């Protein structure tokens, strides 16, 4: 059981600092990226070295949808293998980063728009651990997940993310994990390894998304259904897109925006990722 003194020690360590932590949206793609040494995982590893070392990591993953909002509240979240049909090597991975019940309580307390439930059943799904294990391979930084309320719309998620802004000042790295363009039904598996192979509509809408992000046109990104048929093809279901909105909602007026892993995979998926700050 976490004692009050332990809670106070952790919240003291999360005192505000002068430098804001950046915010990331990461296109996570295939679970195999979690064990592969490729251009995507190499960039994740590089990013972990380039940005300030966080005191904790909070991930909003496309793969934890819930009714209501939850946050992992256990001392050691389990590694969830939420996929099938992959090599045993992938299922053998255990990313044993600690959690932080103290930070879970802190995060739940700063979200005022809805009640946040501390969850002790989830853990780290592949939208989280496949990325974070490359960024912080020693698993010595607390990692938590915040769920996405599937009953709510894009504007709700964008506004909720703003309530997390204070965590940036306390050294918490917030990561949205999904894919901007994510249409699995249209993937050309025969060309999955062909560099820069993308359907015209996927390339066009990915470029449009990047232009809107650069220009700070968040309203248009929230109302993505009004961006034409290309956007509807890119986002047949919204769960992989919602984490982008959590990232954008945390952008401050002075934050720079840059892109990395900006590549189309299999015609209808993009790994395009965003760094804010």
Automatic annotation (TrEMBL):
Is the keyword Oxidoreductase assigned to this protein? yes
| MF terms in GO | stizolobate synthase activity
Q: Which keywords accompany this UniProt record?
A: Dioxygenase, Metal-binding, Oxidoreductase, Zinc
- Please report the name of this protein according to its UniProt entry: 4,5-DOPA dioxygenase extradiol
Source superkingdom: Bacteria
Required co-factor(s) are: Zn(2+)
* Entry EC no(s): 1.13.11.29
**Domain Extradiol ring-cleavage dioxygenase class III enzyme subunit B, residue spans:** 38-254
Q: Give a yes or no for keyword Aminoacyl-tRNA synthetase in this entry.
A: no
The text of the family note is: Belongs to the DODA-type extradiol aromatic ring-opening dioxygenase family.
SUPFAM superfamilies xref list: LigB-like
Identify the Gene3D superfamilies for this entry. LigB-like
């Amino acid at each position: 059981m976490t004692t009050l003194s332990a809670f106070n020690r952790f919240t003291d360590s999360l005192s505000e600092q002068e430098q804001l932590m950046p915010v990331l949206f990461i296109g996570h793609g295939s679970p195999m990226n979690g064990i592969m040494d490729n251009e995507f995982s190499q960039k994740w590893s590089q990013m972990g070295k380039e940005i300030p070392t966080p005191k904790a990591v909070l991930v909003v993953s496309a793969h934890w949808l819930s009714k209501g909002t939850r946050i992992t509240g256990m001392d050691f979240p389990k590694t969830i293998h939420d996929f099938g049909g992959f090599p045993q090597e992938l299922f053998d991975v255990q990313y044993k980063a600690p959690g932080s019940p103290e930070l879970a309580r802190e995060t739940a307390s700063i979200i005022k728009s809805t009640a946040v439930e501390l969850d002790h059943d989830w853990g780290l799904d592949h939208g989280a651990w496949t990325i974070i294990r490359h960024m912080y391979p020693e698993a010595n930084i607390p990692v938590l997940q915040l769920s996405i309320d599937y009953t709510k719309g894009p504007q709700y998620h964008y506004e909720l993310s703003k309530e997390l802004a204070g965590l940036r000042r306390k050294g918490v790295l917030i990561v949205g994990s999904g894919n901007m363009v994510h249409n699995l039904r249209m993937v050309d598996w025969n060309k999955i390894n062909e560099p820069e192979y993308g359907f015209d509509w996927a390339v066009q809408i990915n470029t449009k998304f990047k232009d809107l992000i650069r220009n700070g046109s968040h309203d248009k990104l929230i109302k993505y259904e009004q961006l034409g048929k290309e956007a509807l093809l890119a986002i047949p279901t919204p769960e992989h897109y919602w984490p982008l909105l959590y990232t954008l909602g945390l952008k401050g007026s002075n934050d720079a925006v840059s892109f990395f892993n900006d590549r189309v995979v299999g015609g209808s998926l993009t790994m395009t990722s965003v760094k804010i700050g």
